[in-house]
Amino acid sequence: VEADMRTSVMLRALVLALCLGLTTAKASPGVCVNQQGVPPFALAGKPPAKGKGLTFCEEYRGETCCDAKTTDNVRRVAAHMQLGGFKIQCREAWTQLECSICDPRAGIMSKTKVCAHQCDAIYRACKDDYFTEDKLQRLTPCRSSDTICTKLSDWADDMGGGQMCEDAGYEVVSAGKSKADGGWCFDGPNVPKAGASQRSSAQKKDRSRRKGKGGSAGEIAKSGFYLVVAAVLVLGYYAMRAYAGNRRGGSHSTARMAARMAAEARAQRANAYAKASH
């Protein structure tokens, strides 16, 4: 009975450990990831937090990966566009695109995802303004110091909004497909509520588990996977010991019973012999 109680307690502890591991996996927040062509985040490797010292893109100050270096970079682009005589519609649309990096849902991605319809809207606003390539060969608004600039509509005969965003270094996705998958793409300065980046990250991990896709080693460690494995191994070890103890206990009980039966048989034979002698 005592062994059964020990086994029951171990099984309950195992179930509890599994539940804790799954809860930890769902609660693991996304962390800020540096992107090519953007100044490194001060919060790189940490969850998005309240913005400090932002000089531009202030609509994201409630929760962001950005800091002063990031927004200074965007502010310079906006200043060049104003000095270069870009139409106000283009300036506003393009700076919103540049500020998308400060959305906490974008900051935890290796490349910002932009909805296809948003790219088309920006293209329509900027098609008559002039653009060039930066040192990373990404599409960028023309500056006064640039010697070769081309009207956006002439950049390529068949260029549209999607190609424009890709040439500028963004990932273009269908808004419908992104939402169907539970994901996100930038579709304008729609500032998320606090904690949106953590919920988005948790949803992605849930989808990855359902589709059988593995996460990175860091995500697995953070999700409590190793904790669950360790708990299973420890509990399995003690369960085997308990089982072995039951086996040994059963063997000892059988031996004692056999000894008692042998002693009773000897006593009966001795009584029978004594009666026969009389």
Automatic annotation (TrEMBL):
Region (Disordered): 190-217
Keyword annotations: Disulfide bond, Membrane, Signal, Transmembrane, Transmembrane helix
Signal peptide: 1-25
The keyword Plastid appears for this protein: no
Name of the molecule in the record: Folate receptor-like domain-containing protein
Membrane-traversing stretches: 223-240
Name of a matching Pfam family: Folate_rec
Annotated Folate receptor-like domain residues: 46-186
